[in-house]
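DATA SHEET
Item: assembly model
Revision: 1
Owner: S.N.
Input lines:
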Amino acid sequence: MTSTHVRGRGLAAPPLPHAALAASAALAALILAGLCLGTPSIAPQRIPAALGDPTSLEHVVLWELRAPRLLVALLGGAAIGTAGLLLQEALRNPLAVPELLGVSSGAALAVAVCVVWALPVSAALYPLVGLGGAAAGGVLALAAARAAGTATGVLLVGAAVSTAIQALLLAVMATADRLQYDLLFRYLVGSLSGVMWDQVARTLPWFALAVPLVLLCVPALGLLRLGDEAAASLGARVDLARLGVLAVAALLVGAVTGPCGPIAWVGFVAPLLARWLRPRGEARTWLPWTAVLGAAITLAADLAARLALAPVETPLGAWTALAGVLTGAALMRRSR
Amino acid sequence: MNRALGAFVLVVAVVAAHLATGGATAADVLAVVQGHPTGLDARLLWEYGLPRLLTAALTGSALGVAGYLLQSVLRNPLAAPELTAVNPGAVLGVLGGTVLGAVAADAAAGSLLAALVGGALGGGLSWALAAGGGPGRVVVAGLLGSAVLGGLTTMLLAYQPSRFGNVLRWLAGSVEGRVWDHLTVASWWIPLWLAVAWAASAAVGVLQGGDEHAASLGLPPRTGRAAVLAVALALTAGAAALAGAISFVGLVVPHAARWLARGEPRACVPVAALVGAAALTGADALAQAATHLLAAGHLGHRLGVPTGVVTALLGAAVLVAVVRRERPA
C-alpha cells in the first residue's frame, strides 16, 4: 500500500491565515444561505425578528425546518469527512473511503432492513443499527481484502463487497411496499429532506460520543503513519491501533446514516482538499480542516439539492457524488 | 474431451434447471419444440420462459466475454464491466432515454441505442479520468466514473420518483419479464460482437503480453487496446440494454474460462461466452426458485428476487475465495 500526498504543483497552496479566513467565510456564507434561501426566501436582516416572533410563518420555516436541517448537514458532513480521513490514514490509501469499503452500504442495509421488515426497533436506536451495519460491512470488506495484497487489489475487493451489500439492499427494497419507496430512497442515496429537531436530538449523543474518540485516535494515526514495522518497533500494537481507528470511523458513518442515509464521497473529497490546502501537515492538522470542509461541502450540496430543481428535491447524495468525485479526481491528477 | 463433455452436461443441466424453476414440464417443452404450443403452460413457456432463458444466456455470454477482453487488455485480473463505468453508463442511458421520453420503455432498438450511448459516455468518462495512465489508474478511474454516473442516475430518479419501482430492477439487474420483442436487436447484436471478439483473439493475446511485446510484433498498443475496449463496450451495452446492471458475471467468468481453456487465447472467447451464459442462466434459475419460495409466503404484489442480486452474492463469495487462494504466500 502506498500513501499519496496531494501537493499542488501548478497551484501553490495559500498561506494558513488566508486559507483559514477563506474557509470560515465560505462556511458562514453557506450557513446564511442555508437559512435564507428557499421558498419562502427570508432576507438576512429579518432573521432576528423572525426568530423572536414564534407566531410568524417565517419562524416556523427558519426554526422548525431550516435550522435542524442545517445542523444535521454540518454535523453529518463533518462526521463523514472525518471518517474518510481516519480510514485513509489508517489504511494508508487515499481511496480507502466509506463507499468503497462496505461501510456506507453496510449501514444503509442495516437501517433499511429495520424499516422495510418493520422490525421492532425504536427510531432512536437507528444510529446504533447503522453502526452495527457499518462495522459489519467494513469488517467483511477488510477481511476479504486482506488477502489482496496491493492497494488496487484491496480497493477492488472492497468495491466488490460493497457491490454485493448494495445488491442485498436492492433485494430488501424489492420486497418493500411501493409506499415505502420514498422513505427508502434516502437509504439508497442520502437525503436530508424532512429532518426535524427530534432526529437531531436522537443523533446528537452519538456525535458527542464520537468527538473524544476521534481525538483519542490522533496519536494512533501519528504512529500508523510511520509504517507498520517502525510503529511496532516503537512498541505500538499496530493491529489494535488500526482496529480502534476503523471502529471510530464506523461509528461516525453509522451515526450519519441513521438520519440521512449515505452521504456519498464527502469522505473522499474532504480529506483530499485538506491535504491540498495544508500539504506539509499530518493527521493532526488535517483533522479540523477535513471536518470544516466536509461540513461546507455537504451544506453546499444540500443547498443545491433543495434549490436546483425546486420545488422538487434532488437527492443530496447525488450532488455530493457528482461534485465530490470530479473534484477529487482533479486533485488526484494534480498530485500525479 | 472430458471438458467438452462436462460443458455439454453443464449446459443441459442449467437449461433444465431454468425451465423447471420457471414452472415448465417436459410435456410443455415437447409441445413447444414440435411447434404447436396450445396449452396455457406451453404458451407461457413460449411467450415468457424461453425469451427469459435466451435473455439470460445472451446477457451472460456478452458479459463474460466483455470481462475477458477488459481483463486481458488492461492486464488486471480484477477488471470488470461494472467497474469500468460502462455498465452504469449504459443503465443511465436507458433510464435517461425513457425518463426524457426519447425512447419508449419497451422499444428494443431504442433502448439498445440509449444503452450504447450511455455506455460510450461511461467509457469516455473513465477514459478522460484515467488520462493516459497505466492499467491501475484505469481501474481507479472506472470506480470514480461509476460513482459519478450513479449520481446522475439517482438525480434522474429524483426527477421522476414514480419510476423508482420500475428502475429498481434495472439497478440490480434482472431478466424477468423479457419477451421476444426485446430480443429482436440483441439476438444479432450480441452474437455479432462475440464473433468479432473471437476473430480478434490473437490481437488480445498479444496485447496481454505487454505494450512493448505488442509493438515489437507490429501491433500499435494504444490503437489495439482502444479497438478491443470498443468491442467490450458494445457487448456490455448490449447486455445492459437487455438486463440492466448485472454485476460480477463479467468479473468471475473470465477466470473460470481461462482455467477451462488452459490459457489458449483462441479458445478463451468461446469458453467465456459459454460459461457466462451458463452462469447467468443458472443464477436466474436460482432467482426463480427463490421468488417461488418467497411467493409461497406473503409477498403478494411485491417484486420478486432480481437475478442481479443472486449474481452479486455468489460472485462476491467466489471472488473472495479466488483472491484468497491466489494469495502470494
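QC remark: Chain A is about 75% helix and 0% strand.
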